[in-house]
Amino acid sequence: MTYCVAVKLKAGMVFLSDSRTNAGLDQISSFRKMMVYEKADDRFMCLLSAGNLSISQSVREMLQTEQLDDHEGGEPITIWNARSMFDAARVLGAAVRHVWQRDGESLQRAGVDFNVSLIFGGQIRGEGMRLFQVYSAGNFIEATAETPFFQIGESKYGKPVLDRVITPETPLDEAAKCALVSMDSTLKSNLSVGLPLDMALYEADTLRIDKIVCIEENNPYFRMVRSTWGRKLREAFDDIEHPTWDGSQTSVPLICDSERLGPLKKITNPRERLI
Amino acid sequence: MTYCVAVKLKAGMVFLSDSRTNAGLDQISSFRKMMVYEKADDRFMCLLSAGNLSISQSVREMLQTEQLDDHEGGEPITIWNARSMFDAARVLGAAVRHVWQRDGESLQRAGVDFNVSLIFGGQIRGEGMRLFQVYSAGNFIEATAETPFFQIGESKYGKPVLDRVITPETPLDEAAKCALVSMDSTLKSNLSVGLPLDMALYEADTLRIDKIVCIEENNPYFRMVRSTWGRKLREAFDDIEHPTWDGSQTSVPLICDSERLGPLKKITNPRERLI
């Protein structure tokens, strides 16, 4: 499995990926799931991938040479000359469909799903930052102010903290911290996600990327985040009053009736019926 | 979908279930997923169910009359005369198999999975408390000191806090609070889980259940837990230092090399190859 998350903020973008790949529990390896494309002062793009590794590697390879016809009669569109991230995402979708044309039928015969999901974001000179999630059919959706982040792979464990923290106004470093906390929750609860991590921080309108980091076990900042978050979470939990069951203001009233559900039936007799 | 969790502690057991059932997003209803069986001073049992509602309702109905042959020639074994929770879990497994015999083939023809999962725990006079998770094949596993809780349904959002808090030594009220926090994370991130909740707290060796509560939107304790947890989580998050990227003690060192992965390749040229 995999966990990747990308966030689009007013201040910039955060991309974070783990590196564990597995084919069953007894075949675990490390592969990079982040790829950065940059033509300084012109475009920055970052691709995160999850799913079948043979598919995602092929997609990344093909993305380099993939071309789309320009209906206005110009040069074929590639990720290097696309005039918008939307067009670049179309090129990526076309690369996914090319791999499907090549491998789809054989995979199906072997009973293997054509399973790949991608996050692709960045900025091209002349427009704002954009962030896309690309599906295995090559179709895609774009992040908006209401949904400023995408996750692929094992996304559930790490979603609550993103839901609570991330808005378009979140500062870049805070979003990076949030992505790392989200990754920590995922690492803690799911073995199929593992270190090292790759993280890229892009500052809006710079059209180049300087902050890319590979985070291993011994990374002091990530170690601090992991231990502090675990401790603080525990303290936050301890700070909440226990239920008291005694009728006082904050206690749980001892009723098992519900306006919507009616009384809970306690079965106390073998011949009583439930439904 | 559904979220149910049950915890077995030295001090007792906690059972918590939501009540949302849905067949697609446009058919949402409330059904109780908790059933309590009690013969005071002799046995207490609690059943939580997830999966296809027609299957789980049938299983609950059949559980009342299900009998297993006693290989020692005694009376047939039911949940009301079983001498161990293990035998009671076998009776439940048999009820699941009975429903499968009745409905399995027709469901398969209709392309519907035989999907049911159950948590079944309690105590029978003469032995300690026991907690089981029963699968759709009628087979089951038992909770141990290393894994003192089971979850069914939409389990991932609420797992991190359980992983961090629950041990067999956790006091009963603290475990109840933890189950509610776990439920809160699930409610926040997944629409298919909804109020009201049913919660039952069983104190070890009492062989009867007094603390059963139905929790609706207006329950003051759960409202307090939800708002306090959200706020405290945010404070805990804010308390963690941001990454500084400047080479100081807690910053993220700006390297994109990894001992295991090697350097991250930034693609800066259309003709460069990735792999």
From TrEMBL, chains A, B:
GO annotation, biological process: proteolysis involved in protein catabolic process
GO-annotated cellular components: proteasome core complex
Superkingdom: Bacteria
Protein name as it appears in the record: Peptidase
